[in-house]
TrEMBL record:
MF-aspect GO terms: DNA binding
Protein name: Helix-turn-helix transcriptional regulator
Pfam name, any one: MLTR_LBD
Domain HTH cro/C1-type: 17-71
Length: 269
């Protein structure tokens, strides 16, 4: 006789909100004060005795700093339609955003820059990135390319990163913070995978003379020292747009500045 497992009951909006409040280490009193409702009402919402309105869910989600994807999930759990669309970046509605991102990448030449999604998968990149990937194993370059895996994998950039322990610690700390923000199972699995890679002692402390922590990478006969600036769209109203980040690399010393300017073509006009 074949038996099938009974699926778990759906999680309601109140239980999700309680879970997120606990993840954010807020008491019911702290959250209710921020949202300007009574602690009793918040308690009723969390235990399912009171059904929250879409407006109440959005107010609570705002104070809990939920990303747009997670706000939609709470709305769906409450029986409401998602508030935020989720479209492919090549959808007509996102054409101007895609064009702006492409402009940022192109204008950043001769320095490398990439567009990443929520899971650090490469959405787009400028031509300067190609020079950094020489010698990377082909399986790490199969789409979707995960730049954290590509960087820390023994078949990726890791053997050429001079300060691997420092850079590894920096990347794992970023990933851990995003896991805490999103509670995303895919990101949690990625953190476990990357943490298992060899990489020396994880020490994110920069040297006393440094003002930023660079990634120091051997490329052919040269060594490049680069720091990064991450930028996100300021007013996203779409899940895809909310999760995009532009990671731009800049020279951290004069030698890298000269090398990058000499080896790359000027940006398009």
């Amino acid at each position: 006789m074949v038996t099938t497992a009974t699926p778990p009951p759906p999680v309601g909006a109140g239980a999700l909100l309680r879970s997120w409040r606990e993840k954010r280490r807020l008491s019911q009193l702290e959250l209710s004060t921020r949202v300007q409702v009574s602690t009793r009402h918040l308690s009723y919402v969390e235990n399912g005795r009171s059904r929250p309105s879409p407006e109440m869910i959005m107010r609570l989600a705002e104070q809990l700093e939920l990303p747009l994807r997670e706000r939609n999930e709470v709305l769906l759990a409450g029986g409401y339609a998602p508030a935020y669309a989720q479209q492919r970046l090549d959808a007509p509605a996102l054409a101007l955003v895609a064009d702006a991102l492409r402009m940022v990448l192109d204008r950043h030449l001769p320095y490398p820059a990439v567009v990443l999604n929520r899971w650090w998968e490469m959405v787009d990149a400028n031509a300067a990135v190609d020079a950094l990937l020489d010698g990377v194993a082909a399986h790490l370059l199969e789409p979707p390319v995960n730049v954290l895996r590509l960087t820390l994998h023994p078949d990726g950039l890791a053997p050429r990163i001079v300060n691997l322990g420092q850079w590894r610690a920096h990347l794992l700390a970023q990933l851990r913070r995003r896991v805490e923000l999103t509670d995303d199972a895919q990101l949690r699995a990625l953190h476990a995978e990357l943490s298992s890679y060899p990489g020396g002692a994880d020490d994110p402390t920069p040297s006393p003379h440094q003002v930023v922590l660079p990634m120091v990478l051997r490329v052919g006969e040269h060594t490049l020292s680069m720091f990064t600036i991450a930028a996100a769209l300021g007013t996203p109203a779409d899940v895809t747009v909310d999760e995009l980040v532009v990671e731009s690399f800049y020279p951290a010393d004069d030698a890298t500045l000269r090398l990058l300017r000499a080896e790359q073509p000027p940006p398009p006009t």
